[in-house]
# Entry
Amino acid sequence: MTKRSESTQKDGKVAASGHKVSKNENQSDPGRKMQDQDDRKVGLGKKVTLLRGISIIIGTIIGAGIFISPKGILKHSGSVGMSLIVWIACGVLSLFGALCYAELGTCFKKSGGHYTYILEAFGPQMAFIRLWADLIAIRPAAMAVISLAFGQYILEPLFMPCAIPPMAVKLATAIGITSVMYLNSMSVTWTARIQILLTFSKLLAISIIIVPGMYQLFIKGETKNFENAFELSNVKLSGMPLAFYSGMYAYAGWFYLNFVTEEVDNPERTMPLAIGISMAIVTSCYVLTNVAYYTVMSADELLASEAVAVTFAEKLMGKFSIAVPIFVALSCFGSMNGGLFALSRMFFVASREGQLPEVLSMIHVHRHTPLAAVLILYPMTILQVFVGDIYSLLNFMSFLRWLFIGVVVLGLIYLRYTKPGLPRPFKVPLFIPVVFCLTCFFMVFLSLYSDPVNTGIGFAISLTGIPAYYIFIYFNHRPKWLQRALDSFNRTLQIILVVIPAEQ
# Structure
């Protein structure tokens, strides 16, 4: 990682704190005079409409989980009725968090999501620690996990009923990751269109479960699994926090639209609408899908199933159940596509703020995509797929997600008092961020209590961001030979990738 080099700071500079204080107008850029073929301004346009915003949120939230294993909530909640209440409650809590982010997104019309809001509320050091944890561990591992699910389920119909060779899964996963990277590198418009298509495909898959389930419930009267739905003999208060933890994880992804705020058309209107509509759709889908499962499976059968949607389809649809893995794979691909589209913008903004190499904040001359920012996760993700212990890493990092989201929402409350005059086109009642913030910190405490070793390791990994901040960002002086090497690295990548700074 480099700071802005001396040679690229003639008209602007980066403060010692690492927070950019003025725009660099005179980059040492061999391609600065290059023009787009269509003579358009080189930059990220406002291409995210309401429909595309909804598709980003829904398409990223709904991954493989609702099709494969909703049993974590049932296991910890203890009864069918309580599990449905947890699904609804987690949807409402996620809506609270999403509304908080909608307020922040209309206050600060900058992309970057968590990173940007922590930067604005608590300064560059805290923002860099979040960025560091994301870059070295959280995002590559999370991308690798959802990609491995894609590789597993895209091959499932070809190998049924045999087991799939692990190397075949990894190769299919690598092809999936590469195709997502390529798509995001080539066109913002096509990335958004594919995301809409994938979102409709996963909603179709969910409707294929919900509609027969509702037929079983209301027409055939299959209600035996709902009898004594609120039987409290198996309900343990100690398990409820874990049930909520599983539920909140299933809803994770509602914040991704905030990563692309600068590309949202009319963000004051689009962001709150997209968030509200998306969370209503996702919560309804999750609850109705679980109700549908219970029309053909008892609680014990659901807990025994390895892939709940497949078991459901086998019971009701016979051979059509072979299509379920394809829908699951498409759902995973949509999560990969939406996640990468959003995350690349965080690295783009961090580079613009002087906390990542400057080439990451440059735009492809003809494609108008943040090419370097899209590709930065590729090597680490592929490495994780083939050699990494991904699931252990995710255990280390699961609590960090809620810690930093809690910090972001705490920043919203803090800004209410420190900057009361800040324009807030969309403003939520104060109790919403307070309730959500307390929920986040409760889940962090739960992680510390239930798994102190892995949580401690994750916390230690994030703390390595503190020395990294002072080494790479804070200190002004470094050897001239090192600075020249870093400048040469930036220029070389810029020429290879054909990217230039965004035009204002």
Confidence is low (pLDDT under 50) at residues 1-38. The first strand starts at residue 362 and ends at 364. The CA atoms of residues 24 and 229 lie 63 Å apart.
